Amino acid sequence: MCNSDDNGKNAHICLDMQLPQQDVLRAAELAIAENAENAPTGDIDVVRKLGVDPTSTVEAFGAVLTGKKWQPGRKLRVRHLDGDPQIHAKVEHYAKMWEQYANLTFEFGNDPDSEIRISYHHDNRSWSYLGTDALAIAPDTETMHYGWLHPTTTDEEFRRVIVHEFGHAIGMIHEQSHPEISIKWDVPAVYRRYESQGWTKAQVDSNVFFKYSKLVTQFSEYDRSSIMHYPIPPELTTDGVAVGWNTDLSAKDKAFIARIYPKPQPAPAMDMGPPGAVPPPPAAQPAAAISGPVRIRRTWG
Ligand SMILES: [Zn+2]
Question: What residues contact residue 236 under an 8 Å CB cut-off, 6+ apart?
Answer without folding.
Answer: 185, 186, 189, 190, 193
